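Quick one before lunch.
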Amino acid sequence: MQPHSITVKPLTFAVLRLLSDGEFHSGEAMARQLDVSRASIWQAMRFLDEAGVAVFRVPGRGYRLREALHWIDRAKVAAALGDKADLFDLEVVDSIDSTNGRMLKKAAQGARHGSCVIAEMQTAGRGRRGREWHANLGGSLTFSLLWRFNQGAGFLSGLSLAVGVALMRALSQAGIAGAGLKWPNDVLHQHRKLAGILIELQGDMLGPSAAVIGIGLNLKLSDQVLDRIDQAAVDVHSITRDMPERNLLLAYVLSHLVDVLNEFEQGGFSCLRNEWLAHHAYHEKQVRLILPDGSQHQGHLLDVADDGALLVRTATGKQRFTSGEISLRGANA
Ligand code: ATP
Ligand code: BTN
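Model of the adenosine-5'-triphosphate complex:
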């Protein structure tokens, strides 16, 4: 698959904000409002196409968004977070390569516990081991949260599983049913990937340490983005027509993250393990294990241990894997 990178210029975001009211706007009127040439507006509209934002063009009337765009709004997120709002320092950016990348830099510069970067759009969103995370503008939640732990990196081995539990609680609060967890870092719906978690750590084995918790949750993916994803993917819009507003959904996720991360800090993954297992998509099922060299092995998934390790019975006996050692797939996926 070709690496994909889209750059959306600030002017394109300015045009988008004018169009957000859902009304028609002529190129001429927008050029006047933004004090730029009509050619610049035309160019901005081309970038919108590339970013997967669908626009109606009607001669004589101008441009109109096919669908309303709900921008991330710090005030709305804070209002929905209520008493928990002070626990976060929210930064919203229009376009960035990767929120995890940005948060890692901020963490190294001493950013506070609870700092969170949310991007309207990522140009180089990343998954594990150099893989790409794709999203279209307004069609997903893509953000990274900084959480500082007194414990060292060794304690955090089950953290991505714990974060999965927070996502499940948030989806349930939002009325999104039928999701499940795949070890170690995915949320699935009917075997298709709905959300991914990428945790990157700073600090040492003895602590203290800082975790950058990156989450990508698909809300409404464009066909272009779906085409770019090389495995089965799904979005909230295809699961329910009553999709909660983006800001509210973000607040649900952040709110449950606080609870789960506090539980995790007190008792490690073991105190969340039963809840994780209750959502486990492949519990006691036949699975395929993909090793980093690309070789594949069949196995029977036995359990997930207190420290988050995966226990599988393979042809060579009972084996234990930690996150990063293998990729997991359903036997028939
Ligand atoms: P693993 O089991 O190792 O986690 P994975 O294939 O899910 O394997 P990740 O690194 O977790 O790999 O996630 C990145 C992968 O997710 C990409 O290689 C791509 O296949 C897929 N992907 C990218 N963007 C999306 C998206 N928006 N929705 C669902 N899947 C995506
Ligand atoms: C995965 O499934 O491998 C993890 C995907 C994580 C994607 C999110 S989107 C926000 C944050 N910033 C990134 O670059 N990646 C994570």
